[in-house]
Structures are given as structure tokens and as C-alpha cells.
Design brief:
By secondary structure, this protein is an alpha/beta fold. It has three domains: 80-141 and 339-464 and 473-529, Rossmann fold; 144-334, Dimethylsulfoxide Reductase, domain 2; 575-687, Barwin-like endoglucanases. The protein binds iron/sulfur cluster. The site of iron/sulfur cluster has 14 residues, from helix 1 and helix 7.
Length: 688
């Protein structure tokens, strides 16, 4: 068929948080193609999409799609059930936990794949219907340390920049980001910018592909980022390269930061991090000598037991060099899942915050939501995702409602998480697929993908964009918001939303930073960036142009000292393991594994190992290798490559059979954000 003969509708990508817009071409309920929308409707991606945005839609029709609810039969096996029967089981299970232990024994994992409207309802459902504050999402596993670190320093825990700022920067400083694989369209923009003669500095333990385009690449020892960042800050202060006027007028705490970085001399930084004095000097001069510098990072900086300190160190660096609030400057944590910014944080399915980061411990906020939702809300924050499985072990959590996530594979120390899921007295899983977590469920509810429903996503630069239904739901599957509404009403509430724009309307009236955002405006204006306080507000392209979001309007610089991983290599476990993604896969693979074309490129996890280390252990490229930590072991083929440093190994996170989270640790958490230390585990390596 010709494209002209097909039905076409524009929507927003459901894979990563770059937030590409594209037109979807359908024939009946079959998705046949996507094409980037007209550039003016897609400011983020222009004329590009990546391989996933272009080709990864077979999952919608794949054999594994759940098309009806599943309940356990008398033998403990799943059988198909009507919605009525499944809802009956769910209500009975939830109410039994509430009656036996109280609502706070229930927990809920919300989904960063779902829309903003659905995530708003997930937070509301947890507090109003289940009576628990233990509601959280995958943000806890990735950027919650970014949110904590930036909020403490600047006031907002989000990117200060717009995607367009990348093109206006004179220099881009990237760390802990495999941009071309994890955020491909953004990676292409940055590569192009570098090719045009702008500076690109990359600090990373792996020479990731984007480093090939860098004017400076520096290999760092993983786990000690705040040491080299403090070293850069010290060099800049020591050599009077900082922006005195900006520091004087727009920040507080400079003297304390100056004092706190004194010990990070070039010699000390080199000793701890392997970053040479020349590399510190060269990066510091690049930052200082360019008018507009933009700082980007992802999980290499955040997924540590001191991730919040890493972020504050980076926030100090951007502020003392005056790189905030002007075109081409700012901080940009690249968010991972498509809607982790909006659904994972802004909408407040969080243990400690209502939508728009309104703290639940504040009496006024609590009163506002108690009145709007007609319920009492406990002032004590609930458990964070990473704490839920530890709390289950202590008997403090007995039930879980898990939507669109797969903690059995994605949690640190996944063997422990799986054990706890199995021990839950009542577990409901809501997903497109019978994922690994669902094997422990009492009831499984079939949900729909972003192509089968309407709502909004918020991308990595705070941009709220429309998601439109382009095909009918498969079988009896329903949108998350419809399932939540059906359950709420069966549990004594009176929800009455007929479409998701009504949910958005309710949310915006309770949430100042989204106060002017309606679906109608988002559609008409092609996206709106928060904060957007009222219906006349144009949205905010760039944060901190005038002032920071703090009591006194200034950036509060934070002294950050030394930090190291909670577990260090030793004789028994001599390697540092770091984990991450590859271009052709997405998280635990539920959406990408059904794609034959994608699987042709990558159908298994592997381990990258340095040639010298490989030679020492008699390992050749392609050999099977066992990786073992104090928590578990996996066997994967070796990729022998100099892109990884000596003593470090890297493994991706995408396949259940070789689930690398068996090796990571569930107990080493950032004390502020509770982010786990995915980027550092001590392991040993041996030929299989
Ligand atoms: Fe989708 Fe991200 Fe690829 Fe854009 S870069 S098409 S948002 S996966």
C-alpha cells in the first residue's frame, strides 16, 4: 500500500525521553510505518527518529500480548477470566490486606511508560483508595539523585535547558552518558554540533561512541566522580576562571564550596580517579574559556550510593562558571523512559510528594489534596521503590500493585526482589505482557500501549506533548486509567472521567507548575514546557533566566566532599562492574524482544572486558565468561575491547536469562534519593 492510502495520526514516541514526535501510518489496526512529523510540530527531533522510533512496533501485535485478565485457578495456574471476575479478585485481595494490616501495608509501583494522566491517577489511587504513601516508580532507579541534587542547589530537580540549547552551546560537557545508544536522536544532534567545530568534552569510564567526536575524551575510574568534578571546580577557583559576577549576584555558599574542594588537588584527583592533571586543566580551560557551556549527564553520574553528591558537585560547577539561564547553557540530565519526567516525577506517584513536587509533609499541601480527593493522608512518607523489597523482608509490606514495570529483573539484587515478590500476600501486575514479575502475581490485568490510548508525556526538557490513540486496544486490554477508575469505583469511590483531558484538568488545578497546561493547549501549541502557571503563561523554555527556584532566588551551592562506592574491588572480587543499555534494546526487553529485526542486531547480553585483562584470564573475544559478585552470577559472551578501562567490565541489562541485576546490590542506596549503586559492583571474572 502507498502511504497516501493509509490513516495517519501524529503522536509522541513511547521509548525514550528524548520525546520524538512522529506520524503513525495505520491500516485498520495494523501499524505499518512511522515518519517524523513536520519539523515545526517536532522541535525535539526535527526530521529524525532512531531505529526504535522507526521500526519497533511489532510488539503491539506480538503473540505475547495479554488480551484478557488472568487469575490463578485451584492448581495455582493462570487461566483467562472476565474483567468482572478479575476485578472481584483484586478488590478482595486489596481489602484483605487493608483489613489485616492497614492500608500502609500496600504498595504500588507506577509506570514511567504510562501517560501523565494515568500516573496522576496512580498517585491518587494509592493515597485515596489503598490508603498508602508507598507509591513510587522507576525514577528511583535512575535519576532520583538528579532530582534531589538539583532541587537542593537550584530549586527544580529537572533539566534547566531546552533541546534547542544544545545547538547554541559553544561547548558541551558530557559525563556518564552513552548518548548515541541511550538517547539516539539527541546523540545525533550533539555529534553534528561537534562536527561543526564546537567543543565536546566527554568524561566516562567507557570510550562510548560519542567520545569519538569529542575534542577531549578522558577515561575515568568508575565510582569516584565527585572527586574529579571537585578537582575541576578547585582548578577553576584556584586559577580565577570562575564567573565572579554570577557567583556574587546569583549564588550563596561559594566560600564553603571553595573550602570543601581545597583537598582535591590535581595529584590527589589523579591518584584516586586516574584523571591526569593535564586532563583536569584542559577541561577546566574549555569550560572557562567558552561563553556558553551545557552540562549533560545520565546514569553514570546518578546510579551510585553517593549519586546526589555527584549531582550537587556538577551543579556547583555549572553555577560557579555562570553557565545557567542563558541560551546554550545549563544542566541537562537526559531522562530514560519516555515519560519518567512527567509520569515518574511531576505527576507525584511518589512516597513523599504530591504532583508538582508538593511535599506531603507540608500541612497545607496535605489539606489541599485531602479536600480534593476526599480522604485522609498520612503525613509520613511511604517506602521508596528500592526500600519496598527490604520492607517486605521486614514484614512491613504485604501487598503490591505493580503497573508497567518489571522489578523482578530491574531491581538491584534482583534475586532478592524476586523472592520478596513471591512472598507478597497479594500481588497484582498490570502490563502489556506476562513479564517476569507477573509469574509471581495473583492477578494479571492486560493494559495497552501508547499507540492504543490518548494522553500526554513529558520529555526530558520538561515538554508536555500529546500522545494519540492510533489503533484499537488489543483484545479486552484496557488503558491504565480505565482500569484504575473501574477498581476505584468498586472500592467505594466515585471516579467519573470519560476522557483523559478531564484528568489533566483536575491535575492542573492542584499543581502550580502545570497550572496552565491543558491537552487542548498542548495540541494547539505543539507542546508546553513547565513551569506554566496559568492559561496565559507561555511555558518556560529555559529555567533560571531571572532567578532560581529558592527562597531567596539564588542558587545554593553545596559543599561536597569525598565519596566512594559502598563496595570496593578486593582480591576475591577484583573487577568493577558497571551496567547500561544498548541501542537496539529497551530495558528488560518486553517491547523490543518481540521485534525480529531488532533481535537480528542484538539478541543477548555480553560483557565488555579490556584486552589486557582478557589476556591475563585467557579470554578471547566471543568466549563465554562467568561474572560473579557476592550476590549472584551470570554467564555471557565476552567482547574484548579497549573502549573499557583495565579492571572494569561492562554488561547490559536487557535479557532475563542473563539478568545482570543478580550481581548488583539492593542494600547500597544513596542516603538522600535511595538510588541504587547500579554503576558499581565488585565482581570476579572467569572463563566459563
Ligand atoms: Fe524514540 Fe528516543 Fe528514538 Fe526518539 S531517540 S525515536 S524518543 S527512542
Amino acid at each position: 500500500k502507498r502511504l497516501a492510502d493509509l490513516t495517519v495520526e501524529d503522536t509522541t514516541c513511547g521509548y525514550c525521553a528524548v520525546g520524538c514526535r512522529f506520524d503513525v501510518y495505520t491500516d485498520g489496526d495494523e501499524v505499518l510505518a512511522t515518519r517524523p512529523t513536520e519539523p515545526e510540530k517536532s522541535p525535539v527531533n526535527g526530521i529524525s527518529t532512531c531505529v526504535k522510533g522507526k521500526f519497533s512496533y511489532d510488539f503491539v501485535d506480538s503473540e505475547g500480548r495479554l488480551t484478557s485478565p488472568l487469575v490463578r485457578d485451584e492448581n495455582g495456574e493462570f487461566r483467562e477470566a472476565s474483567w468482572e471476575e478479575a476485578y472481584g479478585r483484586v478488590v478482595e485481595g486489596f481489602q484483605e490486606i487493608q483489613e489485616k494490616y492497614g492500608g500502609s501495608a500496600m504498595s504500588m509501583i507506577a509506570s514511567s511508560k504510562a501517560t501523565n494522566e494515568e500516573n496522576y491517577l496512580m498517585g491518587k489511587f494509592a493515597r485515596q483508595v489503598l490508603g498508602t504513601n508507598s507509591v513510587d516508580n522507576c525514577n528511583r532507579l535512575c535519576h532520583s539523585s538528579t532530582v534531589a541534587g538539583l532541587a537542593r542547589t537550584y530549586g527544580y530537580g529537572a533539566a534547566s535547558v531546552s533541546t534547542e540549547d544544545f545547538e547554541q552551546a559553544d561547548a558541551i560537557f558530557l559525563t556518564g552518558s552513552n548518548t548515541t545508544e541511550a538517547h539516539p536522536v539527541l546523540g545525533t544532534r550533539i555529534k553534528q554540533h561537534a562536527k561543526e567545530g564546537n567543543e565536546l568534552v566527554v568524561f566516562d569510564p567507557r570510550k562510548v561512541q560519542i567520545a569519538e567526536y569529542a575534542t577531549q575524551y578522558t577515561k575515568v575510574r568508575p565510582g569516584f566522580d565527585q572527586v574529579w568534578i571537585n578537582g575541576l571546580t578547585r582548578y577553576i577557583i584556584e586559577n580565577d576562571l570562575y564567573d565572579e559576577e554570577f557567583v556574587e549576584e546569583r549564588t550563596t555558599g561559594f566560600e564553603q564550596v571553595k573550602e570543601s574542594v581545597e583537598e582535591f588537588t590535581p595529584e590527589y584527583v589523579e591518584e584516586v580517579t586516574d584523571v591526569s592533571e593535564e586532563d583536569i586543566a584542559s577541561a577546566a580551560e574549555t569550560i572557562a574559556n567558552n561563553d556558553r557551556v551545557l552540562f549533560g549527564w545520565t546514569l553514570g553520574l546518578t546510579e551510585h550510593s553517593h549519586g546526589t553528591e555527584n549531582i550537587m558537585a556538577m551543579a556547583n560547577l555549572a553555577a560557579i562558571t555562570g553557565n545557567l539561564g542563558k541560551p546554550g547553557t545549563g544542566v541537562s540530565p537526559f531522562r530514560g523512559q519516555n515519560n519518567v519526567q512527567g509520569g515518574g516525577g511531576d505527576m507525584g506517584p511518589l512516597p513523599d510528594n504530591f504532583p508538582g513536587y508538593q511535599s506531603i509533609t507540608d500541612d497545607d499541601n496535605r489539606e489541599k489534596f485531602e479536600e480534593a480527593w476526599d480522604c485522609e493522608i498520612d503525613p509520613e512518607p511511604g517506602f521508596y521503590t528500592t526500600e519496598m523489597f527490604l520492607a517486605a523482608d521486614d514484614g512491613d509490606l504485604r501487598g503490591m500493585y505493580c503497573i508497567g514495570e518489571n522489578p523482578s529483573l530491574s531491581e538491584p539484587g534482583s534475586n532478592h526482589a524476586s523472592e520478596m515478590l513471591e512472598e507478597m500476600e497479594f500481588l497484582v501486575v498490570q502490563d502489556l505482557f506476562l513479564n517476569d514479575t507477573a509469574q509471581f502475581a495473583d492477578v494479571v490485568l492486560p493494559a495497552v500501549s501508547f499507540l492504543e490510548k490518548t494522553g500526554t508525556f513529558t520529555n526530558t526538557d520538561r515538554r508536555v506533548q500529546m500522545v494519540k490513540q492510533v489503533i484499537e486496544p488489543k483484545g479486552d486490554a484496557k488503558a491504565d486509567w480505565e482500569i484504575l477508575q473501574d477498581l476505584a469505583n468498586r472500592m467505594g469511590r466515585e471516579w467519573d472521567y470519560s476522557e483523559t483531558s478531564e484528568i489533566m484538568e483536575e491535575m492542573r488545578q492542584l499543581t502550580p507548575i502545570y497550572g496552565g497546561i491543558t491537552q487542548e493547549r498542548v495540541e494547539e501549541e505543539g507542546g508546553l514546557q513547565w513551569p506554566c502557571y496559568d492559561l496565559d503563561h507561555p511555558g518556560t523554555e529555559r529555567l533560571y533566566e531571572e532567578e532560581f527556584n529558592t527562597d531567596d532566588g539564588k542558587a545554593h551551592l553545596q559543599p561536597v566532599g569525598y565519596g566512594e562506592p559502598g563496595e570496593l574491588p578486593d582480591e576475591e572480587y577484583p573487577f568493577s562492574l558497571t551496567t547500561g543499555r544498548v541501542l537496539y534494546q529497551y530495558h528488560t526487553g518486553t517491547m523490543t524482544h518481540p521485534e525480529e529485526g531488532i533481535m537480528d542486531y542484538n539478541d543477548r547480553d555480553f560483557v565488555e572486558i579490556n584486552p589486557e585483562d582478557a589476556a591475563n584470564y585467557g579470554i578471547e573475544d566471543g568466549d563465554l565468561v562467568t561474572l560473579e559478585s557476592r550476590r549472584g552470577e551470570i554467564t555471557v559472551p565476552a567482547q574484548v575491547t579497549a573502549r573499557i578501562g583495565k579492571g572494569v567490565v561492562f554488561a547490559p541489562i536487557h535479557f532475563a536469562e542473563t539478568c545482570v541485576n543478580q550481581l548488583t546490590d539492593s542494600t547500597r542506596l544513596d542516603p538522600d534519593a535511595r538510588t541504587p549503586e547500579f554503576k558499581f559492583s565488585a565482581v570476579r571474572v572467569s572463563p566459563y
